[in-house]
Write a structure and sequence with these properties.
With 126 residues, the protein is an all-alpha fold. It has five helices and no strands. The chain folds into two domains: 3-71; 77-105. The protein is rod-shaped, with a radius of gyration of 34 Å.
Length: 126
C-alpha cells in the first residue's frame, strides 16, 4: 500500500466524515468492528501503513458518530428504504381507493324514478 491512500484519506477528511455522518449508526458500528478486525490482522502481519490508514478510518468513523449524535443528523435513506416507502404509499393509496369504491357500491346513491310523460293529450302536428 502506498502513502497515497493515507494522504487521500487525510486530504478528504471533512468529506468522508460528512458522508459517514449521514449513514445509519448501525452501519457505522459495523464499520468500526470491521476496522478493528482489519487492525488486528495488520498488527499480526506488522503492516505499518495499513495500521496507519485503519487508524485514520477509525478516527473518521468515531468523529462522524459524534457529529451525528451531537447534531441529531438523520440517516440518509438508502435505495431499499426509499423503495419500501414508495410501495407503502402505493399500498395505502390503493386501500383508500378500494374503501371508497366499496362504500360507493355498498350504499349507491338514491336514484330519482324516471317520470314518464303523458303525451296522450298533446296533439300531433302531422
Amino acid at each position: 500500500m502506498s502513502n497515497t491512500r493515507i494522504q487521500l484519506a487525510l486530504d478528504n477528511w471533512d468529506n468522508y466524515v460528512s458522508q459517514l455522518a449521514s449513514m445509519p449508526d448501525k452501519e457505522l458500528a459495523k464499520k468500526l468492528d470491521l476496522i478493528h478486525l482489519q487492525s488486528e490482522i495488520a498488527e499480526r502481519t506488522k503492516n505499518v501503513e495499513s495500521l496507519e490508514l485503519l487508524d485514520i478510518w477509525q478516527r473518521q468513523v468515531v468523529e462522524a458518530r459524534i457529529i451525528k449524535a451531537e447534531n441529531n443528523i438523520p440517516d440518509a435513506p438508502n435505495e431499499i428504504e426509499l423503495a419500501i416507502a414508495d410501495i407503502e404509499t402505493t399500498v395505502a393509496q390503493t386501500e383508500e381507493r378500494k374503501e371508497i369504491i366499496e362504500e360507493t357500491f355498498a350504499n349507491p346513491p338514491a336514484r330519482k324514478p324516471k317520470i314518464q310523460e303523458d303525451n296522450s293529450s298533446q296533439t300531433s302536428l302531422f
